[in-house]
Write a structure and sequence with these properties.
about 375 residues; mainly beta; four-stranded antiparallel sheet
Length: about 375
């Protein structure tokens, strides 16, 4: 009898241990995430006082960064040849520009990169080429566009060649059509696309053609541009009452098969989730983040729920919003970097991420290695 009673006690104890362990494994939405993440930061100093944007190219183990620096329109090229190495400065060039608002790059030949720079204050798009074997820069083309703010590299007319999509706060938005020899022709998209601060690409109607959504300050709305496949666009306001957009992304964050929109705004609204319900959007404030500047997604727990990592111009940390079926819990990643202008996330493997940030005030960029501890 005593042995049976003892066995029952042992059994109850094992069940209790199992329940406690199970809670630790599965009740992740009740945990302080800071205790389940590890991160480290490596900083790299540029020769400029401020970095406003960067273009990142990844070719197998090789990574190349083209950094746009605010003053004197300076571009610095950094390179990492292996994943375990740090970035090193390779080349730089100073342009006759008052600022660099955005920068994009793509490989345009076996030995050549094409770099595109938007200068809002100089009202100019500058196209550059860099040849690896000689280390030489050339400036084959430039275009006068009023207040260019956002660049995207994409084939807009389905001819197999990369074009340049330009968002502008001036008289409308444009695209630069590639003539198949990496020379471009400026084309107006339309005066309906006024005051565009940011542009994101999407195949909205799933017809195989690249459409886009633009954040328009003058119209206080998000505008959908439907592409006919030849580079002609039809505008449609999909969300109104949106201002001060510094960044936004399009993703199904609540896993209902409708693409939602997350907006970083420098006005009182901060970070917003625009939840999509069959084309109708409802607004929800996310977290408590002042002056968010950049948003990226990551599947933090590998469960299909897209969490958000957000940078701020005012704070010294990154904000992590852990997504549990549409319910977001906030944690801070202290990275000791103020006035972050851009954030980009690269997944190395399951639970292992590398984040890249640029800073306006320090003239530095940083690589942050983030690991999710399994629990």
């Amino acid at each position: 009898m005593k042995l049976g009673k003892f066995s029952r006690q042992i059994g109850l104890l094992l069940i209790l241990i199992f329940l406690l362990y199970s809670g630790r494994v599965y009740a992740s939405d009740d945990l302080d995430l800071k205790n389940y993440l590890k991160w480290s930061k490596t900083e790299f100093k540029t020769r400029a006082s401020s970095v406003t944007s960067f273009a990142r190219l990844i070719e197998n183990e090789k990574e190349i960064l083209f950094l746009g620096c605010y003053k004197k329109g300076r571009i610095e090229m950094f390179q990492k040849l292996e994943a375990k190495e740090g970035f090193r400065l390779v080349k730089s060039i100073r342009l006759d520009l008052d600022d660099i608002r955005d920068i994009k790059a793509f490989r345009s030949g076996v030995d050549q990169y094409t770099i595109v720079v938007a200068s809002e204050l100089s009202n100019k798009i500058q196209v550059l080429e860099y040849v690896e074997s000689t280390g030489q820069w050339t400036k084959p083309e430039s275009f006068r566009i009023s207040g260019p703010t956002s660049l995207n590299i994409v084939d807009l007319n389905n001819d197999g060649y990369l074009d340049i999509l330009v968002g502008s706060t001036g008289s409308g938005s444009f695209w630069l059509s590639n003539d198949k020899n990496v020379r471009f022709q400026k084309k107006l998209i339309g005066s309906a696309f006024l005051g565009i601060e940011q542009i994101r690409l999407i195949d909205y109607n799933e017809d195989g053609f690249t459409d886009f959504i633009g954040a328009s300050e003058s119209r206080k709305s998000l505008i959908l541009a439907l592409n006919d496949g030849k580079g002609k666009f039809t505008p449609k306001d999909i969300v109104t009452g949106i201002t001060g957009v510094l960044d936004f992304l399009i993703a199904d964050v609540d896993i209902d098969c409708d693409l939602d929109i997350v907006v970083a705004s420098h006005n009182s609204k901060g970070l917003l989730l625009l939840k999509n319900d069959h084309g109708e959007f409802t607004e929800k404030k996310l977290g408590d983040i002042k002056n968010p500047t950049s948003i990226q997604t990551l599947d933090l727990m590998g469960d299909g729920n897209l969490s958000l990592v957000v940078s701020s111009f005012d704070e010294t940390y990154l904000t992590l919003l852990y997504n549990k079926k549409g319910d977001f819990k906030q944690a801070k990643l202290e990275v000791d970097a103020r006035e972050i202008t851009k954030l980009e996330v690269k997944q190395e493997s399951k639970g292992h991420y590398k984040l890249l940030t640029s800073s306006f005030s320090s003239g530095k960029f940083a690589e942050i290695e983030l690991n999710v501890m399994r629990y």
